[in-house]
Specification:
256 residues, mainly beta, 4-stranded antiparallel beta sheet, 19 strands, 0% helix, 54% strand, disordered N terminus
Length: 256
């Protein structure tokens, strides 16, 4: 059994609220929870609900990601799947001010009219910049819009990094110089191939792929953290850990 927790969280304990897609931010002025209560997107500090966005999504698994900037604002990436509308989906970038218990904005980053099986968000912060990532999957109905997307908030361009189903992770400040690394296992449970992308400055770079030569599996079955990625002791060295068939597989990657 694996337990996961934030490195800055003081202890493993039951959350005072029970939310689907629950995300946690631990800060000196409280612990914030973001997730879905039924179909409603909620923000809570401890057990107190600060804000609600009613009827946000019919699908509630892996539909929220959150980060916080130095001004205290919560930046939320929420994916909305509308079962009642042919499983179409939308990707929302929302801001919430806990000090005023007020929503500050709701911008649509993507609208997908076609069938969506899952739409999984992640969000990262580099200094005061916010990067949004999401993965669309049409299930057995493969579509050109499937795959992994990246968007830096405030910029007009959305990058379609991978055009197929994948499980992905995000590593902030991967090189110690503010770059963001994406690892995308393109055929989990079928192969050992992982594609790597690096955001350095204002552009994304395709670093190619690694192949463990054996089937790799996710570390959990929720899709939220399919594998572990961390910075090594030497500058520019990244390590990744996966479940193999009967053991843990550790890979190394040297950043340019």
């Amino acid at each position: 059994m694996f337990y996961t927790t934030s490195l800055i969280s003081p202890a493993l304990e039951n959350a005072p609220v029970d939310l689907d897609s629950q995300q946690v931010i631990v800060s000196p002025d409280g612990t914030f929870y973001v997730g879905l209560d039924g179909k409603d997107l909620q923000v809570a500090r401890g057990s107190k609900v600060l804000g609600t966005m009613p009827r946000f999504s019919d699908h509630t698994l892996n539909n929220a990601a959150v980060t916080r900037t130095s001004d205290g604002i919560l930046h939320i990436l929420g994916t909305e799947v509308l079962i009642s509308h042919d499983n179409s989906s939308r990707v929302h970038y929302l801001r919430f001010d806990p000090a005023q218990s007020r929503w500050l904005g709701d911008d649509l980053l993507m609208v997908r009219a076609k069938f969506t099986s899952t739409s999984t968000p992640k969000i990262a912060r580099i200094g005061e910049s916010v990067d949004a990532f999401w993965h669309n999957d049409g299930g057995s109905n493969t579509q050109p819009e499937d795959g992994l997307y990246a968007r830096r908030i405030g910029e007009g361009e959305t990058w379609h990094l991978v055009g197929e189903r994948c499980e992905f992770v995000v590593l902030e400040d991967a090189d110690g110089r503010g770059s963001t690394l994406i690892g995308a296992a393109t055929k989990p449970s079928e192969s050992g191939i992982v594609r790597w992308f690096l955001r350095r400055g204002n552009a994304w770079y395709d670093l190619g792929s690694t192949d463990a030569g054996q089937k790799l599996y996710t570390l959990n079955n929720s899709g939220t953290e399919p594998f572990a990625v961390w910075r090594g002791e030497k500058p520019g060295v990244i390590h990744a850990a996966f479940n193999g068939i009967d053991h843990i597989v550790i890979e190394g990657l040297q950043l340019p």
